[in-house]
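Consider this one:
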Amino acid sequence: MNSTITFRKAKKEDALRLSILYKQVYMKTYATQGITHEFANFVTNKFSVEAIEKTIEEQDTVIVAYHKDNPVGVAEIVYNSPCPIPSVTAPELGKLYVLDWFFGKGIGYGLLNEVEKELTDKGYKELWLWVYIKNKRAISFYKKQQFECIGNAFFQMEVNSYENHVMLKTL
């Protein structure tokens, strides 16, 4: 891994920069048909500075990768998220986002490693996520990290729903 990358828990003062990182990665990944009203509403609300500050303050589950003290990737653990596959009761990897310019530098792996370390320290044995079925790069990454597809589920936005693989990893 690149030695100039460091990892730490997010702080409230990171929220503005994380808001931009979340929006940029989300739109690059999912807005393949352009920026619809639905997507604009979603990213504006979900990734607002206020929403990110609240997550950082209340949940303390945001891990950030930094290059020269600037965020370049982020992971979020969601402890109380119900898995669409009812038999799974593990925490969710809610986000694992890396800026395009930093792909292939071990940042995604490093973030996932930090998440797994935190979960195993707390006694968890599994981690689940969902990933858009058209996001081939992410699916390939997760498979390399020993996640297995255990079913599919739909993410509902406003009027459209998007099919996702539900993936599980034993820690």
In short: The longest strand covers residues 161-170.
